[in-house]
Amino acid sequence: MKQYTKKFAVAATMAIGLAAFNAAQAQTINFSDLDASYIGAPYSGWFPSATTGITPTGIQVTANSTSYGGLYYDLSDSPYGALNLNANDTLVTLTLTFSGVASADSVAWVGTPFQLNDNAGGGTFPLSANDYSGYNNPGSPAGFTWVQNSESSYTLTETGNLTADEITAAQSEGGLWLYGFNLNIDPAALPAPYTVTFNSLTFSAVPEPVSMALVGLGAAGLLIARRRK
Q1: How far apart are CA 122 and CA 2, in angstroms?
Q2: How far is it, in rounded angstroms, from Cα 122 to Cα 113?
Q3: What are the DSSP calls for 169-213, one per residue?
Q4: Would you tell me which of 29, 54, 108, 114 could form a disulfide with 201, CB atoms 3.0–4.6 Å apart?
Q5: What pLDDT sits at residue 17?
Q6: What is the pLDDT of residue 209?
Q7: Contact between residue 63 and residue 193 where contact means Cβ atoms under 8 Å apart
Q8: Of 136, 122, 141, 127, whose CA–CA distance to 91 is shortest?
Q9: Contact 101, 89 (CB under 8 A)
Q10: Nearest to 219 by CA among 71, 1, 21, 13
Q11: Ranges of residues in the chain whose predicted pLDDT is under 50
């Protein structure tokens, strides 16, 4: 009976830690859930040769030009309305996937800045507009992670800090409201045509140390219990 009590206590510790950790996790806009009719016309080098649409994995753009391009999504006028972000959110992460890529060298140096339109001033880049990154590129900035899915597919996640004004707004009584966002690509060495799918935009908080400590304590307890058994 005592053994089961210990296991329950350990499991409860992990559950509490995970609950606190998950509470710090924030909202994700899965682009596959959006309405294609609220995608603004592609601009710059993508227009008018690019095609856009919503797929089961996100906003897909097939570009027939090697020029810089981008698009805007109007979240405020869509059926989803503007997004009220959590007060503890400090980070924003964009996930996107390149497919039909000839080689890893093709995504060795790609610019992928994105822009938020919100009630904290908008027009701010959570990441520098000049940040370029690539698969196995030692020059990739901190917060950029590349994963090779297949010989011709690569996924990038890039995480940056919300601005001080955005964090202040999120913690105020009125909160931080997201009205829309810009998604941009500077293909650099990426030859056309290419396809990029913008998968999601996630707003999250840095997990509190006490939450992570509880998870770690619970995991350690389970390990010890297993070894004793």
Answers
A1: 57
A2: 14
A3: HHTSSS-EEEEEEEEEEB-TT-PSSEEEEEEEEEEE-PPPHHHHH
A4: 29
A5: 43
A6: 57
A7: yes
A8: 127
A9: no
A10: 13
A11: 4-23, 210-225, 229
